[in-house]
Amino acid sequence: MNEEKMRILKLLEEKKISSAEAMELLEALGKPEPAERKGRLLRIRVYEAGSAEPKVNVNVPLGWAKFMAPFIEGKIKAKLADKGYDVDLAKIQEAIDSQEPMKIVDVQDGGDKVEIFIE
After folding, report:
1. Is the per-residue pLDDT at 113 higher than 80?
2. Cβ contacts of residue 113 below 8 Å, gap of 6+?
């Protein structure tokens, strides 16, 4: 058990706080900070073979990404399918909706590389 929880339980034991206050404090400790929990940007990086710098470097606020996704989803899926990639865009949309920092796509094609992630 971590130190903060032990202090709260000790305060409760000493009757310095009520059980309701202790419960509130314990629940607050269990919640991650909003800045830690939520990503703020959808980042897209495209690297050409042999290049350390991305040829394409796009940063989109998640609010815009959520708004624009339905409008561009069909075009992206068709272009990827033409190149032989079967990408489940619904999974990408779920990741954007969750706003959890994560890598969504990491594709290497020969020396070229595409990364899409939430940060």
Report:
1. yes
2. 45, 46, 47, 106, 107
Tokens read off for 8: 């709260």
- Distance separating alpha carbons of residues 118 and 44, to the nearest angstrom: 9
- 8 A C-beta contact, residue 46 and residue 109: no
CB 42 within 8 Å of CB 20: no
Instruction: Evaluate if residue 84 carries a pLDDT over 70.
Output: yes
Can you tell me the distance from the alpha carbon of 11 to that of 18, in angstroms, rounded to the nearest whole number? Answer: 9
Query: Coil, strand, or helix at residue 86?
Result: coil
Dig out the tokens for 118 from the structure.
Answer: 């939430």
